[in-house]
Amino acid sequence: VSAFPVDGTFPTGTTQFEKRGIADRVPVWDDEGICTQCNKCVVICPHAAIRAKVVSNEELANAPSTLKSVPAKGRPFDKETESYVLQVAPQDCTGCDLCVAVCPAVSKEDPNFKSINMHSKLKVEGAEDPNWDYFIDLPDYDRAELNITNVKGSQFLEPLFEFSGACSGCGETPYIKLLTQLYGDSILIANATGCSSIYGGNLPTTPYKTNEFGRGPAWANSLFEDNAEFGLGMQLALSKKQETSANLLKGLDKEVGAELVEAILNNPEKTEAEKAENFANLDKLKAKLATINKPEAKKLSRLIQYLRKKSVWILGGDGWAYDIGFGGVDHVLASGENINIMVLDTEIYSNTGGQMSKATPLGASAKFAVSGKRTGKKSLALQAVSYGNVYVAQVAVGAKDLQTLKAIEEAEAYDGPSLIIAYSHCGDHGYNLRDGALQQEKAVETGYWPLFRFDPSKPKGKKFRLDSKAPSKPLSHFMYNETRFTRVVKEDAELGAKLLEQAQEEVETKWERLELYRDM
Ligand SMILES: Cc1ncc(C[n+]2csc(CCOP(=O)(O)OP(=O)(O)O)c2C)c(N)n1
Ligand code: SF4
Ligand code: SF4
Ligand code: SF4
After folding, report:
1. Which ligand is closest in space to the CA of residue 329?
2. DSSP 3-state of 3
3. Could you count the other beta carbons within 10 Å of the beta carbon of residue 18?
4. Ligand 2: which residue has its CA nearest to atom 2?
5. What's the CATH number where 72 sits?
6. Residue 163 forms part of a structural domain
7. Which of 89, 110, 141 is the last residue of a domain?
8. Nearest listed ligand to the Cα of residue 428
9. Which domain holds residue 85?
10. CA distances (Å), 40 to each of 49, 101, 148, 218, in order?
11. How many domains in the chain?
12. Is residue 37 part of a domain?
């Protein structure tokens, strides 16, 4: 039996040592000339195995000759002195092909050739392994300089969730990765049991890691049924510690100096620059506290990390959020606390083999609904909207990555409870997940998965924003590419046709209902 530390902590950033090398084929950045540097391949990668950096040209002076780079495009980069590099980690890539599928840069001469293309790993790893080793040690761009309100800029941020053991092509992990890129050094994660707790804490390794300053997400998994309450407890403890540390600091005003005290207490940490300033001030405070011989100073030294803006994110699947943990989710939403919930909605209990949940749509076959579910999916999002003071977003990163990014940023900024329902394709849906992002696009086009955001902090008439257009394609365009929907058609064509008709009707009714929210 291994010796576990008494407080339940374990080393982080350990998946990087696994080097599972499970892919037969891996992507290679073949044509840097046609690459638009959009970073769409980076955001969709479930395993953080393809990354982009912008570095000064000098940094590349000793790079392997096979490491490609191009002048960096767009703000804030200097194309004369800085280069854009895109690199795959061949031994961490799972070969899902999602990055190639989303790449918009197609060769004019050959429509089957893109900026990145899949190759036999055996043939390319000789060059690409050393390329990755060099690339990963290159410095990350200054966070405070990047424009992280667009997808491209956000993808230069270091992911603090990488190389998880999730299935190849998983639709859940890109959301978690993005969350850690944006706020990884300032968040606490409460994780419901489900796929995300298994690939999130697949001991002895974990995909969560810290940045070069030793800061990263604090993560814990309690149970399946109590995760929202678990996260609320984290939030209450966090608020108390923040309050206690602020009071201690105010009490040491004279010893510390009013200017530093004010600078720390009044820093909203809304931007990366403000965050960096607070880190610098806390370093100064730490040094000062060491010279003050008072019990309050000693106590504050232990609590100094709470003089920070931190947030709690509660993560889990639909089985947790719609069904078994729903009471807790509802309780947290009703609490008014400044807390965030993200539901990774695969529309089934994925981790235990695909059982039906209240998120399973009409007509889909799942365990306990093998011949097609006969009732519709509940709208957890609209239930939450009914509170009026909850920020709510329904997103699909494969369909509209910018909307997902905005939703996460708005949820984090909103001073109250937030709920993001994130469409997550899953191997249990029954198709090659290479097409996961394409299916998400179809889900949005057909009205199966409308995209919207409800922000109570916006003025009347501007609170509800529909981010997708009215359904423009029949539902079958989306549904009939997935075995979960075609199974019933194969078994009983008449029943299949009836369920499709009902599902189509449901889509139209749901869209009409959403349009009513527009004026809110
Ligand atoms: C009270 C309880 N019931 C059942 C389980 C078994 N269990 C663990 S994970 C899971 C499914 C999780 O499904 P979901 O919340 O949709 O997350 P996903 O795996 O799809 O990400 C189940 C049923 C459990 N751990 N606790
Ligand atoms: S093939 Fe899949 S795992 Fe590999 S880099 Fe592309 S998206 Fe990531
Ligand atoms: S998706 Fe294609 S065009 Fe965009 S950064 Fe990746 S390789 Fe370049
Ligand atoms: S079962 Fe589905 S949700 Fe779970 S890791 Fe695999 S693809 Fe992701």
Report:
1. 1
2. coil
3. 15
4. 96
5. 3.30.70.20
6. no
7. 141
8. 4
9. 19-141
10. 13, 10, 14, 28
11. 2
12. yes
pLDDT band at 202 (very low <50, low <70, confident <90, very high): confident
Q: Which atom of ligand 2 is nearest to the CA of 50?
A: 5
The radius of gyration of the chain from alpha carbons, rounded to an integer in Å, stands at 24
Give CA separation, 2 vs 5, 204, 205, 482, in Å.
Answer: 10, 10, 14, 43
Looking at the DSSP bridge assignments, the partners of residue 114 are 106
The reply to whether 214 falls in a domain is no
Name the nearest CA neighbour of 510 among 438, 430, 452, 426. 452
Is residue 167 within 6 Å of ligand 4 at its C-beta?
yes
Q: Are strands 464-466 and 452-454 parallel, antiparallel or unpaired?
A: antiparallel
- Any alpha helices (H) in 340-446, and if so which ranges? 380-385, 401-413, 436-445
| Residues 6 or more apart in contact with residue 18 via CB below 8 angstroms | 92, 163, 205
**Ligand nearest to the CA of residue 360, numbered in listed order:** 1
Ligand 4 centroid–CA 188 distance in Å is 23
Smallest CA separation from ligand 3 atom 2, residue: 103
- Contact (CB, 8 A) for 25 and 117: no
What residues does ligand 2 touch, defined as CB less than 6 Å away? 27, 45, 47, 49-50, 88, 93-99
pLDDT, one tens digit per residue, over 255-273 is: 999 999 999 999 999 999 9
Which residue's alpha carbon is at the smallest distance from atom 8 of ligand 2?
45
Count H helices, E strands: the chain?
A: 19, 15
Distance 82 CA to ligand 2 centre (A): 26
Tell me which residue has its CA closest to atom 8 in ligand 4: 170
What three-state secondary structure class fits 247? helix
115-124: pLDDT as tens digits? 999 999 999 9
**CATH code of the domain containing 415:** 3.40.50.970
* 345 pocket-lining for ligand 4 (C-beta < 6 Å): no
Rounded to the nearest angstrom, the distance between the alpha carbon of 321 and the centre of ligand 3 is 34
Give the residue ranges of DSSP H helices in 317-371.
318, 326-335
CB within 8 A of 114, min separation 6: which ones? Answer: 30, 31, 34, 100, 103, 105, 106, 107
Domain end point (choices 126, 141, 156):
141
Q: What is the pLDDT of residue 1?
A: 54
Lookup: tokens for 7:
């407080």
CB-hemisphere CA count at 13 Å for 476? 9
ipTM of this complex: 0.99
Q: State the virtual CA torsion across 331, 334, 336, 339 in degrees, nearest 10.
A: 50
SS3 at position 396: coil
- Which residue among 24, 96, 161 has the greatest number of ligand 2 atoms within 8 angstroms of its CB, and so is best to mutate? 96
Domain membership flag for residue 474: yes
Residue position matching structure tokens 């479930």: 46
